Fold this protein.
Amino acid sequence: MAKDPTQTYFAGTERDRAAFEAGIKLGAIVHQFVGTPVTEGTAAALERAMEASTRLQPLVEDIRVRIDRERLRAHGPYGYASLTEDLFDIEVVVRAGPSRAVGVLRFVPELDYPLMYLKEIGGPTEP
Amino acid sequence: MAKDPTQTYFAGTERDRAAFEAGIKLGAIVHQFVGTPVTEGTAAALERAMEASTRLQPLVEDIRVRIDRERLRAHGPYGYASLTEDLFDIEVVVRAGPSRAVGVLRFVPELDYPLMYLKEIGGPTEP
Amino acid sequence: MAKDPTQTYFAGTERDRAAFEAGIKLGAIVHQFVGTPVTEGTAAALERAMEASTRLQPLVEDIRVRIDRERLRAHGPYGYASLTEDLFDIEVVVRAGPSRAVGVLRFVPELDYPLMYLKEIGGPTEP
Amino acid sequence: MAKDPTQTYFAGTERDRAAFEAGIKLGAIVHQFVGTPVTEGTAAALERAMEASTRLQPLVEDIRVRIDRERLRAHGPYGYASLTEDLFDIEVVVRAGPSRAVGVLRFVPELDYPLMYLKEIGGPTEP
């Protein structure tokens, strides 16, 4: 990676930044797109748009967004659903120098909660 | 159109409803998608997702969403923009029985304002 | 009302515009704020912010936003909810010249749907 | 803090989590509230609502949200602005066990970019 002009603003290590940036991406996707009308027929277009917008952001190496068709329940007289947090299944990979973080959002039934967590994090803990 | 089960909730005429529903769609698109990271390269995917989500909603006959590439200005160290209200160019056609409304959102330079307006509205003014 | 410089852009009557603007406000509130974390303790602050932002918009005469505490269900390990469309109870009053429209959003159990509808609409049907 | 039931899902250290959670909060605030109509007169109510909704989320110790009145430019015939990313000035403090992260969002003129960064990060780098 070419020298990033934002680097001087950051405290901590590149590993810290990788974790931080993974969090940003998950928070951003969810709160940007929650509430969008969706059906099985339109889910793929929405997934592509969410992935494309995420790829533009700092340090994203890979992003996969899935809307859970099993949990998606069209309802009401017009037969569509609104995208809710529990329908997301996201995995985002962020790289900062030698460090890499994999952030996940998925609904965890045991917690009754759409959990964002670090699935993997690696790299030096010293600057 | 088959009898719409929501009809009994509405005051006014089908023409009133057509105008009302056109407004809903414009308000919804803008406030759902404003803030999404975008570039010339991702604008088309986002336009498709916005159109697809709008088509699911009540009484939409047609919808066209364009992001103004001329006004789109990538900036900052990562070279993307955030979708703002003044970048939208939307035309939505709504039909309620014999009535039809065409709602538009576009930036109007003379007003320095992204204006939502009724471009066309027709149909009986009596129930 | 002083002459509104946007008026020349509008097709139809002031009554059409009142209906259209009422729709915009409902679509905007919902798609702006859906997804916001909320509990009984924070609902009032959010209601005030939603009302304040709506009052700024064209032709709004009155606005009341309530989050349904009965339907609000805190869940997950951190004990909060996300604002969803079915939790809204909104009434917005719009005036365009002699015409007045009252738009409502509320969850209608019989429809299993958060319905936006015109509760009242009045004024001349001729320009 | 009582044992957090989400802990078993997390890779890495509590420091990694603190950085990650700080990122989530910044991404969430921005993409939830960008686009909201705002003036100097309504900015305070919106700031309070943004802070209240953030305090509900996991591991937040403190949050301060300011809308930059200097940059806020009401415009158009109705005299209000839309909240954009460059108007935010946010500082969020997250604690995970002995680790603490301070995340900031502010517009950085030299970068022409609203930068999210870790202002402080501390705590053990070993589990």
